[in-house]
Amino acid sequence: MFENLLTISDAAKLLGVSPSTLRRLEKNGNIEEYGLKVIYTPGGQRRYILDEVQQLYSNQGFSGQTGFGIKPALLIRDLTIAFTESHSQLSIKMDNQIAATQQLIEEALTDKIPIIFSKTIYESENKVSRLWCEKFPSLQILDRESTWVNIHPDLADYPYDMVNATVYISTLYDNQVDDYLQKREIDTVILAGTTTSGSIRATAVDALQRGYRVIIPKEAVGDRNQTLQNSTLVDLNARYADVMNLEKVLKGMKL
Hints:
The protein has ten helices and ten strands. It has 255 residues and is α/β, with parallel strands linked by helices.
């Protein structure tokens, strides 16, 4: 019931106000004037509806839409064993990300849209990899030869145009993927995979700075908890990408 709700801290941060401001608006009976409702958990914690916060955010001048360009590509990140198996140190909260990504792949194959699968690896001799691992020690399991970096079985047999092993947070950082896209005059990237607050966010920012339109089907990305997932999607949609439902993305891929 509470999966698509934001905490008062997350809602306040996204709206650029303090939690006390939201509490005061509620106490004074003014909260609904801003299009917001307050829902209480069984433990008495305030929650705010994600879509309503998104709408208010948009009304403040954020969340413009760039839409699809002419030539899209599908970029999938880290839907590997390490991020999808529940017993892994790196696992995300799994819902329907694999099934949603399968639909994106099938549509891309039908419409001859390039598909690139990027997976994070750990290389002890690489300075960036070592530094990232100091911050995030669990990455050590992602040795290039480890089964942890194998693509999820339901996605493993598709004919990807490129499988890119990378030590970088952004899929585009080392230029191999970007060069591939540039040569094919790609103007839109559709991002799927994990984590929404990590590599998906970093790639979205990087892609926008390189001149790509960025599309994120919300059912096809995941993170380690729903609160982090929700707040990151709201902020991505506000600043760097068009966050859409899967059905709308699939329709846009047909154009």
